[in-house]
Amino acid sequence: MRRAGMYVLLTAIALVFVGPFLILLSAGLKPSGQAVFSFPPDIIPRPPVLDWVKEAWTAIPYPRYLLNSVIYVGATVPFYVLVSALCAYPLARLRFRGRNLIFLAILSTMFLPGEVMLIPRFLVVSQLGMADTFAGVILPGLLSAFGIFLLRQTFAGVPREIVDAARTDGCHELRIFWHVMLPAARPTLAILGIFGFISVWNSFIWPLVVLKDSAKYPIALGIAYLAGITGTDVRTLAAGTIISIIPVVVVFMIMQRHVLEGMRGAVKG
Amino acid sequence: MPGQRWYTPYLFALPALALFGVFFVWPALTAIQLSFMEYDVVSPPEFVGLDNFVKMVGDSTFWTATLNSVLFLIGLFPLLVVAPLLLAVLVNQKLPGIRTFRMLYYLPVVTSMVAVAVAWEYVFHQQGVLNWILTGAGLLDQPIQYLLDPFWALPALILVEGWKSMGFYMMIYLAGLQTIDSSLYEAARVDGASAWQRLWRITVPLMIPYIAVAITMEMLDAMQAFTSVYVMTRGGPQDATLTLGYYIWSAGFEHYAMGYASAVGLVLWVVMIAMAMLNYRITKGRS
Q: Which residues form the ABC transmembrane type-1 domain (chain B) (predicted)?
């Protein structure tokens, strides 16, 4: 009995977190004859239609924005993971001057509010001739204090014997990094890949600042653009928004165990 | 050590250090420099000394934004520091299917703020679910247009921001809860402590370090609220939802007052560092 009550409570809370998405989904699938808003709410589309999905697909250059987001993810995620791993390896395993200083400097970027850096970083990117370019959107995202922090922990935990064995075989550091460290850190690399995908797919403010040309928008900016067009039908907006979150939700559902474990690992460190 | 020259570690760190220099150090120095300048992007920057800071003191819009950000900070506290601890206790139980509930509570964290903002516009609609619930329960006589109402717009945005991030804070607490030795609870139960007492006497004291982390992150989150404001209200109605984050963006990119915007950013930065340090001091003293 207590257990049943617990499930009722858990489900009620789940409804609070999922409800707004269900409302959106329902609005995006309702036929034009059925009211989107009513007292009491009428949630089940009768029948569900894909008209608004098609409408959203053409109201803005939807496929283009999806492709852009894929490009941003593809160009950011592998390189940010690599940059993080390269930096984390000596921080974890090699002894050298300035090691703590470098680590602290990079960690300090976590406490830099994004809004404060918006203007000066935009000016720097402009001076480098990268305003309104893909490079301007991508490059600042390649440095991740979180990634370096997490990989440093992982590398530090790789057993000494394996590394020493590789050293006595005459491997130089780059080979050890590539053939010993990276394979050992595979789970962490996967976590960083997922987190990177989610954060780049959802990125909004920085592309908003860097990009002038709407043809380069990632999907999140595309949705804001669709929402801002006066006269966009509420059903079209709902349908467009739902499609935009499907990739991230699917990846999260499949990888949820890794995502949640990864968060726990990060906090424990 | 064979295979390692003195510069090997630096070569490994070089890409990260280069990015750090170009996208953090250089902009940070630029921000400090710009704070003492007037710069409208078109004409070259002009040194104006402390003018931007003097202007800030007399700028009522700046103070409105500051007040709103403080209200954000206060309003998000129960949503991101308190409620997630209770949620974490709830999903820390050993029940079949508990992972699914954790995942569902975490869902808003992985979706974009833009999508979340759009979804909540439907919830907040005059004929939407929230008004239906509140009028049905007799808490409201009339449906409210939350986002157009100067009183309700800010609480509505705080609710959305809190709702989106709650799952994230829950996971931070969950990580902490799983480090607590369950025999402590057993002992307390044997001594006849109620669930409430166990929460207050065991969980909360042991969770102080995690609560400190949550408070620091809550401050960063609250001070940076931007996307929800941009999508849902654009700072309106009548500046009711104008936050410092939005004000900096708007001053810089809508009014091209780059110098002034940088000065506001610098002040925000200093205040945030001070708050983080204060928080660190207080919690350090307690634990």
A: 66-279
What is the model's pTM? 0.91
**Cα–Cα distance measured from residue B102 to residue B108, given in angstroms and rounded to the nearest whole number:** 11
Which pair of structure tokens corresponds to residue B10? 């630096």
Two tokens at A188?
A: 């962490």
Structure tokens at A160: 């000494």
CB A91 within 8 A of CB B6: no
pLDDT of A88 over the 70 cut:
yes
All structural domains of chain A: 1-49 (no CATH), 52-268 (1.10.3720.10)
Q: Do A238 and B122 touch (CB under 8 A)?
A: yes
Does A227 touch chain B if contact means CB atoms closer than 8 Å? yes
Band of residue A268 on the pLDDT scale cut at 50, 70, 90: low
* HSE toward the beta carbon, residue A239, CA cutoff 13 A: 25
Helix axes A219-228, B113-123, angle to 10 degrees: 30
Cβ atoms of B247 and B19 closer than 8 Å: no
Measured between beta carbons, which residues in chain B are less than 8 angstroms from residue A100? none
**Tens of pLDDT, residues A25-66:** 999 999 988 888 888 888 899 899 999 999 999 999 999 999
How far is Cα of residue A224 from the mean position of the Cα atoms in its chain? 17
Q: Cβ of B167 and A112 within 8 Å?
A: no
Mean pLDDT score across all residues of chain B = 90
Annotation: CATH topology of B47-286: MetI-like fold (1.10.3720)
Q: Is the pLDDT score of B2 beyond 60?
A: no
Contact between B243 and B229 (Cβ < 8 Å): yes
Minimal CA separation from A147 to chain B, in Å: 11
Q: What is the ipTM of this complex?
A: 0.90
Hey, which residues does B38 pair with through a beta bridge?
B46
